[in-house]
UniProtKB/TrEMBL annotation:
Topological category with respect to the lipid bilayer: Single-pass type I membrane protein
Keyword Glycoprotein: yes
SUPFAM superfamilies found in the cross-reference section: L domain-like
Organism field: Linum trigynum
UniProt-annotated location(s): Membrane
UniProt protein name: Uncharacterized protein
Keyword Signal: yes
UniProt xrefs under InterPro entries: Leu-rich_rpt (IPR001611), LRR_dom_sf (IPR032675), Plant_RL_S/T_kinase (IPR051716)
Length: 94
């Protein structure tokens, strides 16, 4: 998956946790897994994807805090709406 730039898995019925190995996707600039049934925590490793600028994980069942590692990204879009996230907003939002 080293050459993959765009991964769109939206509007399926995917379930379970997001794969922890995502941090190895170094060419990925768009990740859209919206409107599935993904659960667990948002992997902190997503914050180390060097060219990621579009991240849409909305409409899932992610829980826990928003990983502070996401502040390392230069995102044009971040959509985490309609999940079960909790805690304070990381400083990157204000």
């Amino acid at each position: 998956m080293n050459q993959l730039g765009r991964l769109v898995l939206s509007n399926n019925e995917l379930s379970g946790e997001f794969p922890a190995g995502a941090q190895g996707w170094n060419s990925l600039f768009e990740l859209n897994s919206a409107n599935n049934n993904l659960s667990g925590q948002i992997p902190a490793g997503l914050g180390s994807l060097p060219v990621l600028n579009y991240l849409d994980l909305s409409g899932n069942r992610f829980s826990g805090k928003i990983p502070t590692d996401l502040q390392k990204l230069k995102l044009n879009l971040l959509n985490l709406s309609n999940n079960r996230l909790s805690g304070d907003l990381p400083p990157m939002f204000y």
